[in-house]
Write the structure tokens for this entry.
Amino acid sequence: MPTRTAYPARPRRGPLRSPLAAAPHSPLPEHRTGASLDRPAAHAAVPDPRSVTLDEFDEYLRTVNNRDGRPYEEATIHADVYPAKALDAWMTANGLDGDFTTVDTALLNRYFREYYRTRGQGGTHTQQRNLIQLFNYLQREYGHPSPYAAGLNRYAEVRGRPKTLSPSFVDDLLEVTGGGKARDFETARDHAIIRILRSEGIRRQELLGMVMHTLPADLLRNPVFRLVPLKGARNAGEGRLVSLAPATARALAVYLRARRSHKLTDSEWVWLGTRNRGRLGNTGIRKMLVRRAAEAVYAQVTPHQFRHTFSDGWQIGRIASDATFPGRRDREAVGA
């Protein structure tokens, strides 16, 4: 009877690949040493210097205060960073290497000339006005001389009469938001916002920045609250008093009652989003006004048009609002 040959037992292999075992089909030649394997790959991405500067600039704006001693608003940061990104995109499209320190006055003039062809006078003025913040930062942090020098061609602001809203349009917006009779959260909120924008002339960011602890316990008996403005000419720590019209105070009181049913009713922010979402933002208020205007069968409207309408009416005596703007005697006072 034939006998079976006994072979030594083979150890069981685990499911994990051994770090010491060579790959069965390794593309590396056998003479490569371990030292050569530690070399970084030739295709490793190298951070773009302009992208690094943009990230640093964005972080810088978030860690410093404005001239009034307050942190910069998100919209302000975007307005300062966006022109720098546009300049970066233009440099990339034109094959210009290097960081932003390679930009001199002649190159900046070339950039603004090309920008003017597509954006016109007004857009170029805004771009030129906001882009200076990037080069102020480079000069302050790295000592780079600013290209905003004597040889820079300046694009003046296009001045004209601001677009104001007709009284019938605002009345129709108030009507589609319940006319002061709505009690549900969204309609009461939208009605109160439109009322405040119409009668008090505050800026969009000032409206969105309202906090609960500045409101009185009884708005109907004491329709006054303290508002910290975004721009100068007022004490940053104390803010200014805003006196609400009676109809506006009632609308805000109705919203605050409806706000109690919100999941985030304990939030410090006055204006909250629908469906139990958090603080109402720039996009939220803009979409709300567009939607309400469409319901009233009108074209689009922006929050700042309410500001222009208020200041225009205040100047020609249609609106008596000395409580909101005490002692203001010129156009600059109302921030038009």
